[in-house]
Design a protein that fits this description.
mainly alpha; flat
Length: 80
């Protein structure tokens, strides 16, 4: 595929195939598949001047909504 040319429409949806030392296809864990597709799109965008990876990720959004340890200790009734 030429992700920098005729197949540019597939950027961000495809990732490289990885192989084990024995030559068998090594499946990427599901957690890394999106990241591999995004970084593949970034490296195939020749001569660009925009940022490819500044976007909220599901894990980052989950961490932002988690209560802080201080909030978990404060029950709201004046006792800590």
């Amino acid at each position: 595929m030429e992700l920098w040319g005729k197949d540019a429409a597939y950027r961000g949806t495809v990732a490289p195939v990885f192989y084990s030392r024995a030559g068998e296809v090594a499946m990427l864990p599901a957690e890394f598949q999106n990241a591999a597709a995004l970084i593949t799109a970034a490296v195939c965008c020749l001569g660009c001047r925009h940022c490819h990876l500044l976007q909220p990720q599901p894990l980052a959004m989950k961490l932002e909504t988690m209560p802080t340890p201080d909030a978990a200790l404060n029950t709201g009734d004046g006792t800590a």
